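Researcher: Re-running this chain for the archive, since the previous output was lost when a drive failed. Same request as before.
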Amino acid sequence: MKALLDHVESAHNIAIEKETKKFDTYEAFKIWKEDVEKQTTALYVKNTGSKFNNMKKTTYFYCHRNGFYNARGNKKRTIKMAGSNKINGNCPSKMKVCEDNENQVYVEFTKTHLGHGKNLERMQITREEKDEFARKLEKKILIDTILDEIRDSFIDKLERIHLVTRKDLLNLKAEYSISSEGIMDTNDVDQNIYDEDLYPGLKAENFLLVIMNNCQREMLNFYGNDTICLDFTHGMNAYGFDFATILVLDDKREGFPAAFILSNRQDSKALPLAFVAIKEHVSISPKRTQMTDDTKSFSNAWRTVFGVPEKRLLCTWYGDRSWRRNISKLIKKPENQVEAYKVVRCLLIETDDEAFSIMLKEALKIFSANDELREFGNYFEHVYCKRTEAWAYCYRKWFGINTNMHIESMHRTIKYVYLQGKKVKRLDRALFYLMKFVRDRVFDRLICLEKGKISSKIAQLRKRHKVGQELTSLCIRKNEEEWSVATTKSNEIYIVKKNPEMVHSV
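Model: Regenerated C-alpha cells:
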C-alpha cells in the first residue's frame, strides 16, 4: 500500500491527506468513525482480524470500495443491478486503529479516496438505525407510518436512511425474527382431519372450513330467527377459496357476521355439510327473510338444512353489479349506457308499489323502442321482471332490511381497513384479519350497549323531524285528513294524507 501511495503522489501529482486522532474510549472512536462515513459517503470495514503486539491491539479499516470482485458459489444468482461495491482496484483511504491497555485509541487516518465517487446507494443502514426500525416494527407500528417518518425527516441533505424502502423493512423483520400478524408456523397443523366416512361427499383435495366463535354463536342464536343475509365471494385468496358470510341484523338493524365459511367447493354436497355443522351449535329457525346473491346453490343448501323462508330477497349489491356488467356488455354508446342504468336504478329505489308498476312498463317501452337498448331490455325483462319482489325496494319496506347493503359495507371494511386494500395470499393471515374484524364488531356492540349509540338512520330521522318542525308556516291544513305542504327549495306543493290502513294496524 505504501508503494501505491508513493506512486500516486509522484506519478499523478495527487496529494494524499493524512491525519492522526486520539480518543479516550473505543466508543468515542466509533462515533467519530460513523460521522466520517456519513460525511465521505464511504464505509470503513475490516478485511482481517485485529493483531496484538506490545500490549496493543491494531485493527485496519479499509474503504469498502477497495479491492477486487470475487464471485462465490456456482453463480446461479444474477448479480444485483448496481453491481459489486468493489472497484476492481485499490483505494488508498484507510484507518489504522491502535488500542492500548488503558483503552485509549490512536488513529492514523488516510483521508484521500481514489477510483470511485460518492455513491449514496452503496452505503448501508447503520446498526443503530436498524435497531430503531426493529423496535418500531415490534411495537406493530405500520410500515407505511415508518416510511412517512423517514420521508418527513428529510430537510436539505439526502442521507442513506432516506433511501429506505418497504422491502428493506420487510428484510429487517426477517433478520430480527419479527413475525407478521396472523402468520402461523408450519407445525401448527399436525394432523389430517379429513375423514371419508364422516364426509362422504368430499374428496381428499377438498377444503371446507367453518368459523364461528362464541360471540358469533350468541348473536346467531339471538337474531338468527329474523333476517339472514348469505353471501359468497369468489377467489378470496391465491388458493382460489370461496369466502361465504352468514350475516344477521341486530336490534340497531346493523349487520353482524355470525359465521364464515371457506371452501373450494360451493355445490349441493359441500355447503349442506357446513350448514349442518353450524346448526349443531345453535338453536334457530330462520323462517322470515333471506337475502342472497343470484346463485342458487347457496340458497338451496340453506333451505335443505334450515327450511324455506317466508321471503327471499336479492342482495342489492349483486343486482346493481349485474346490471352494470350487462349494460357495458350489451350497450356500446356511453350515453345510452348512462340512460339505461338511470332507468333501472330509478326502478330499484322506488318505494311506492303502484308507481313502480307504472315505471316498469314505461321502462320496458323505452328499451324496446331503442335499437341500442333493446338487447339489454330483453335481458332485463327475462331475468329480473319476473321476480321484482326480490329486488325492488317497494316490496321490502316491511321486512326490516336496510338498503345500505350491509354485506357490501362489511366487505369494504375488511378489504380497506383490515387488509389495507391488498389481496391476501396466505390463508392464515386471512383468518387472522377476519377474527380481528369480528372482535372489533363485538366491542363496537359492547360500547353501544354501555354508552348508547345513535345510528345514522336515527340521526337522519331526527334531522328531518327538526326541519319539519320549522315548516309549520309552509303547512296548510285543508281538513282532518289532508294537508298541503310547500317545499323550501322550490315552488312545488305536496299533498299529505292520512293512511287509514296504517292507522288501524297501529
